Amino acid sequence: MKIEIDVPAGASRKSLLEELACAMFQKDALSFGQARELAGMGFFEFQKALADRQISRYTPEMLEQDMTYVRGE
C-alpha cells in the first residue's frame, strides 16, 4: 500500500517522517525495522530517536523473555 502526504510549506519532510515512524512504532502499527525504514534512519539513529521521545523498544514482557533467555532458563 502506498500513501501520499502533502507536506506543508516550511515543514521538513524528514522530521515529519521521523515523527510518524516513532508514533506508529509506539502504537505497534509498525515493527522497529519498518518504522526505521519509514524514517530513513539507521538502526542506532532510530533507536536514539525513540529514546529522545522516551519510547521504549521493549515491553516489560519482552524484557523478561530476553532476561530468561540470557539466564538460560
Which features characterize this protein?
73 residues, mainly alpha
Structure, briefly:
It contains four helices and no strands.
SS content category: mainly alpha
Helix content: 55-70%
Say how many strands there are: 0
Cα gyration radius (Å): 15 Å
Mean pLDDT: 89
The total domain count is 1
- Please report the distance between the alpha carbons of the first and last residues: 41 Å
Catalogue the unreliable spans: none
Strand content range:
under 5%
| Order of H and E elements | HHHH
The DSSP helix count reads 4
Looking at the structure, what is the overall shape?
elongated
Largest sheet descriptor: none
Topology:
Layout: H1 13-26, H2 32-39, H3 43-52, H4 60-71
Helix pairs in contact: 1-2
Descriptive account of the structure:
By secondary structure, this protein is mainly α. The protein has one domain (13-71). 60% of the residues lie in helices and 0% in strands. It is built from four helices and no strands. The protein has helices at 13-26, 32-39, 43-52, 60-71. Helix 1 (13-26) packs antiparallel against helix 2. The longest helix is centred in the first third of the chain and has 14 residues, at 13-26. The protein is elongated and about 55 Å long. The model has no long low-confidence stretch (mean pLDDT 89).
